[in-house]
C-alpha cells in the first residue's frame, strides 16, 4: 500500500514545493560532497534505503530480487560520502568505503571493454535485456571511485575509475554506452540500447563522472565537452513549454512522458550544476525557466493530464 501511495503522490503531486538540493561546482584540489543530495527515507521523493537490506560486507541490495543495483549502490555511496565529509560521521565513511570496494571488485570485461557494470535484470520499457550497461551507472561509479582514491590515498581506485570510463569511448553497437550521430552528436545513455531513449537525468549524471575524471585522463574531458555541445543543441527538445520531458522517447500514438515532479526537480538542479561546470548560461536560463513551471497552474494541469494518460496506457498495455 505504501508503494502505491508513493507512486500516486509522485504522479499526481499536491505539494509543489519539492526541490532537489544541489551544490554548484567549485574548483578545488579535493573532491567534495556530490552535487545533488538524495533523501534516504521511504517517502514519495526518497530512495527508501532505510528499508533495504545490506549484504555481509555492508553493500546495498535492492528490490524483491535482492539484487545489486549499480546506480542505487553508487548513489547511496555518494550520499554517505557527503554525510562523512559534512558531519564527520564515521559510520557513513565505513558505508561509503564498503560500496566503493564493491565497485572495485565487480568490474567486468564486455566485448573487450573493461570496467563494465552490467545490470542483473532487464528494463523492458526501454528494450534493455538483463546484462545491459548504463552510462549513468558508469559515470556515478567513476565519481565514487575517485572519492575512494582520495579517501584511501590508493591508486587502485583511480585505476578502476579510468577503467569504468572505458565504455564511454565505445558506441552502443560496439558494446559501449555512447550514442553517436554522423554529424558528431554524442549522448550518454542511461539504458544503452540501440533504440536509445536519451533519458535526460541519466545523461547528465553520466557526464559528471567524466568531468571529474578529466584531470587524470584528458580524453574524458574531451568526451564531456563534446557531449555538452550536443546537450546545448538538444536541450529545447526536452521542454514542452510547460514542463520538462523525462526523455526523447516517443511511444505509440506519439505520446511522450513528462518527467515526474521528482525528476523535474532533478533536471533543474542538474542544469544549475552544469552551468557552474561549463559556464554556459543556457543551462542556467533553462533551469530557472523549468523551476518557474512548478508555480504555474497550466503546467501543473499538464503534468496531471500526462500522468493520467501514462497510467491508462500502462493499464491497457499500450506502452
What's the tally of helices? 10
Helical content class? 40-55%
Q: Biggest sheet, open or closed, and with what strands and sense? A: 2 strands, antiparallel
Shape: globular
Order of neighbouring strands in the sheet with most strands:
1-2
| E-strand count | 6
Rg from alpha-carbon coordinates:
19 Å
Q: State which percent range the strand residues make up.
A: 5-15%
Structural class: mainly alpha
Separation, N- and C-terminal Cα atoms: 24 Å
- H-E string: HEEHHEEHHEEHHHHH
- Mean pLDDT rating: 94
Unreliable runs: none
Explain this structure to me?
The protein has helices spanning 2-11, 70-87, 90-105, 135-152, 155-164, 200-213, 218-234, 261-278, 281-293, 297-316; strands at 53-54, 60-61, 108-110, 113-116, 178-180, 186-188. It is mostly helical. The protein has a two-stranded antiparallel ribbon with strand order 1-2. Helix 2 packs parallel to helix 4 (135-152), helix 6 runs antiparallel to helix 7 and helix 8 (261-278) packs antiparallel against helix 9. The relative contact order is 0.11. The model has no long low-confidence stretch (mean pLDDT 94).
Amino acid at each position: 500500500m505504501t508503494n502505491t501511495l508513493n507512486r500516486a503522490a509522485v504522479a499526481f503531486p499536491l505539494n509543489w514545493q519539492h526541490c532537489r538540493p544541489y551544490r554548484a561546482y567549485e574548483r578545488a584540489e579535493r573532491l567534495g560532497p556530490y552535487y545533488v543530495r538524495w533523501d534516504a527515507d521511504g517517502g514519495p521523493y526518497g530512495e527508501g534505503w532505510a528499508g533495504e537490506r545490506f549484504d555481509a560486507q555492508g553493500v546495498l541490495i535492492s528490490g524483491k530480487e535482492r539484487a545489486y543495483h549499480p546506480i542505487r549502490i553508487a548513489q547511496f555511496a555518494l550520499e554517505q560520502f557527503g554525510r562523512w565529509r559534512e558531519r564527520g560521521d564515521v559510520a557513513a565513511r565505513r558505508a561509503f568505503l564498503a560500496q566503493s570496494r564493491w565497485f572495485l571488485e565487480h568490474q567486468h570485461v564486455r566485448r573487450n571493454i573493461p570496467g563494465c557494470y552490467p545490470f542483473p535484470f532487464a528494463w523492458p520499457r526501454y528494450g534493455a535485456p538483463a546484462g545491459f550497461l548504463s552510462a549513468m551507472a558508469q559515470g556515478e561509479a567513476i565519481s565514487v571511485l575517485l572519492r575512494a582514491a582520495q579517501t584511501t590515498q590508493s591508486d587502485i581506485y583511480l585505476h578502476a575509475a579510468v577503467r569504468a570510463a572505458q565504455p564511454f569511448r565505445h558506441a552502443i553497437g560496439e558494446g559501449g554506452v555512447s550514442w553517436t550521430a554522423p554529424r558528431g552528436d554524442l549522448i550518454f545513455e542511461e539504458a544503452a540500447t540501440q533504440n536509445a531513449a536519451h533519458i535526460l537525468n541519466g545523461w547528465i549524471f553520466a557526464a559528471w563522472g567524466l568531468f571529474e575524471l578529466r584531470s587524470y585522463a584528458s580524453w574524458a574531458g574531451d568526451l564531456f565537452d563534446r557531449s555538452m555541445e550536443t546537450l546545448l543543441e538538444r536541450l529545447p527538445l526536452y521542454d514542452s513549454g510547460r514542463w520538462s520531458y523525462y526523455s526523447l522517447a516517443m511511444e505509440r500514438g506519439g505520446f511522450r512522458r513528462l518527467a515526474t515532479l521528482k525528476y523535474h526537480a532533478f533536471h533543474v538542479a542538474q542544469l544549475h550544476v552544469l552551468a557552474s561546470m561549463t559556464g554556459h548560461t543556457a543551462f542556467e536560463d533553462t533551469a530557472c525557466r523549468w523551476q518557474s513551471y512548478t508555480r504555474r497552474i497550466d503546467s501543473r494541469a499538464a503534468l496531471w493530464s500526462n500522468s493520467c494518460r501514462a497510467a491508462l496506457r500502462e493499464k491497457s498495455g499500450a506502452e
